[in-house]
Write a structure and sequence with these properties.
Structural class: alpha/beta
Distance between the termini: 61 Å
Number of strands: 10
Number of helices: 13
Order of helices and strands: HEHEHEHEEHEHEHEHEHEHHHH
Strand content: 15-25%
Shape: globular
Helix content: 25-40%
Length: 331
């Protein structure tokens, strides 16, 4: 009985087709992040107040994650801000969040529950302290807030942490020397000039809540000089994360009229816990870096996210999943 073999031309065609399939498979493996099936399930992301940058960033990041990981459900939780965000991740109430470095360090220094489980994913962008007063106000410095009605942020917010430190550094007792109000960026702007004399805000530039009122009503920024920042540093602890800087003239052009405003800034971190799946964290880290321009088109400060600085998540060590991602893109 004779055996049938394909002719030489047919064999070459089959070999070529097989090679094409292999090449296609390798191409798909290369194009798909990490060359494997995307993670799925549900994660909780704690954001911030509704008119703040954290909330906007969280909404946009959820949209970007859906593109890379369609099987991953991201549940957003509004919050008071950094201090509450850190506590939520440490306790397991949330899986990921954004928090200012000073709030993270404050939580660690207090040795609060779960502090040792906190891990960094990415350094994002800086928050700028913005002290806002009506245009005709007689307040020219932080020291001039004595006796005034001042919004110092919601309890457990990063704003509250910074505002109370600044006030004390300027010699003002935030409980007795002012009338403190617990307004954030969602309510503070609307009450300025009739219910409050000034309000503190710490957020990325520009913040929508301020950008909107800049188009409708007049206000100005009170400068925060190097002298106050230097005194803050002298008090030690988490204050080492504050740095002197300026609000650039382009942040709120209708308010600043071409002038910069001296202030201070603190970096924001995307954080998680050590027990979160490394593969999920690696994919999420990739998505954050890859979506910089897309998110940055809507949240200006997000344009500053950069792989060269993203790894500096002090005071937290990097999560293993984030570490894997940065190793994979290292030049």
């Amino acid at each position: 009985m004779s055996m049938m073999f394909p002719r030489a031309g047919s064999r070459r065609a089959l070999t070529g087709a097989a090679a094409g399939v292999v090449a296609l498979g390798l191409l798909l493996w290369w194009l798909l992040p990490l060359g494997e099936k995307p993670p799925s399930g549900t994660i909780t992301f704690s954001t911030g107040t509704r008119a703040g940058v954290y909330q906007k960033y969280g909404e946009l990041l959820r949209t970007e994650l859906r593109k890379d990981m369609p099987g991953l459900k991201v549940r957003l939780m509004t919050s008071a801000g950094s201090q509450e965000n850190v506590e939520r991740v440490a306790s397991g109430e949330a899986d990921f969040t954004i928090a200012a470095a000073d709030a993270v360090e404050t939580y660690k220094l207090a040795d609060r529950a779960g502090a040792d489980r906190l891990r960094g994913v990415t350094r994002l962008y800086d928050d700028y302290v913005q002290l806002v007063v009506p245009t005709g106000s007689d307040i020219q410095s932080v020291a001039d807030l004595r006796g005034k009605r001042v919004a110092i942020g919601l309890p457990n917010s990063g704003v509250r942490l910074i505002a109370t430190r600044l006030l004390r550094t300027a010699g003002i007792d935030p409980e007795h020397d002012i009338t403190p109000r617990a307004d954030g960026i969602d309510t503070g702007p609307g009450r300025l000039g009739h219910e409050i004399d000034a309000f503190f805000w710490s957020g990325g530039l520009p913040t929508d809540g301020l950008k909107q009122i800049a188009e409708m009503s007049a206000f100005r920024f009170v400068p925060i000089g190097d002298d106050l920042v230097t005194k803050l540093h002298e008090s030690g602890g988490a204050t080492r994360y504050y740095r002197s800087t300026n609000i650039p003239e382009s942040a709120y052009p209708t308010v600043q009229n071409g002038a910069v405003v001296p202030t201070m800034a603190v970096s924001n971190l995307l954080i998680t816990r050590a027990d979160i799946d490394p593969r999920l964290t690696e994919w999420l880290t990739r998505a954050v870096l890859d979506s910089r321009d897309g998110i940055g088109a809507h949240v200006h400060s997000a344009q500053l996210v950069d792989v060269r600085t993203a790894i500096y998540t002090d005071p937290l060590e990097l999560h293993e999943g984030a570490r894997r991602y940065y190793r994979s893109v290292k030049p």
